[in-house]
């Protein structure tokens, strides 16, 4: 029996170079997208001939949701988001796009079809994903875990952590999310962050000056 291995492709999108991730299984004509950001044309071109099962959002800041509308309309796929940020998709003040008009103006999209919560198990592409609620950068921040791959949004970066000075942010919550959830994962867990290069749990435990 052959093992179905998850393949990860990353796209650095928009003025803040937000990482969007396309997850596929080699040989299969379907995928899921995590955080389709602003100016999503490279991502849309890549998925032109793929069925997209779902859009997973680690959180709903504007730079992570800028491509949601185009991708959802193109592929007819549902969006998953934590309920704590349910209205951020429809409210440009909440998602922050009104605060930086020079980056592209207000961003709005239809509400998410599915609400995420701590401990939820998703089956996508025929593979299991676990939802970890990891607030601090924002109240509804979540991380998606499949095997030794963690898609953590703006919680933990290589040698850094997510900012906590935006609406709903909390440094105490962020550090608690990192220590009580992420740092309990095996050291070889690969962290695919919302910005910048990937890293690992073990490397950040040893070297990250913020935690």
From TrEMBL:
GO terms for molecular function: hydrolase activity; metal ion binding. Keywords: Hydrolase, Metal-binding, Zinc. Pfam families: Lactamase_B (PF00753). It catalyses: 3',5'-cyclic CMP + H2O = CMP + H(+); 3',5'-cyclic UMP + H2O = UMP + H(+). Residues 17-195 form the Metallo-beta-lactamase domain. Its cofactor is Zn(2+). Coiled coil: none annotated. It comes from the Bacteria. Counteracts the endogenous Pycsar antiviral defense system. Phosphodiesterase that enables metal-dependent hydrolysis of host cyclic nucleotide Pycsar defense signals such as cCMP and cUMP. This is Metallo-beta-lactamase domain-containing protein. It comes from Paenibacillus mucilaginosus 3016.
């Amino acid at each position: 029996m052959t093992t179905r291995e998850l393949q990860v492709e990353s796209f650095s999108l928009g003025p803040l170079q937000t990482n969007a991730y396309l997850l596929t299984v080699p040989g299969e004509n379907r995928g899921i997208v995590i955080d389709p950001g602003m100016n999503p044309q490279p991502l849309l071109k890549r998925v032109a001939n793929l069925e997209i099962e779902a859009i997973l959002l680690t959180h709903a800041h504007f730079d992570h949701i800028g491509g949601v509308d185009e991708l959802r309309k193109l592929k007819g796929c549902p969006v998953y988001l934590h309920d704590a940020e349910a209205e951020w998709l429809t409210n440009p003040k909440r998602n922050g796009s009104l605060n930086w008009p020079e980056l592209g103006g207000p961003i709005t999209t239809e509400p998410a079809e599915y609400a995420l919560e701590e401990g939820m198990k998703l089956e996508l592409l025929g593979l299991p994903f676990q939802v970890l609620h990891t607030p601090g950068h924002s109240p509804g921040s979540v991380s998606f875990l499949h095997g030794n791959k963690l898609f953590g949004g703006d919680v933990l970066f290589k040698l850094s952590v997510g900012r906590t000075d935006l609406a709903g942010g909390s440094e105490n919550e962020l550090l608690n999310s990192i220590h009580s959830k992420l740092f309990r994962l095996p050291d070889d867990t690969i962290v695919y962050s919302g910005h910048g290069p990937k890293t690992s749990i073990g490397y950040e435990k040893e070297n990250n000056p913020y935690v």
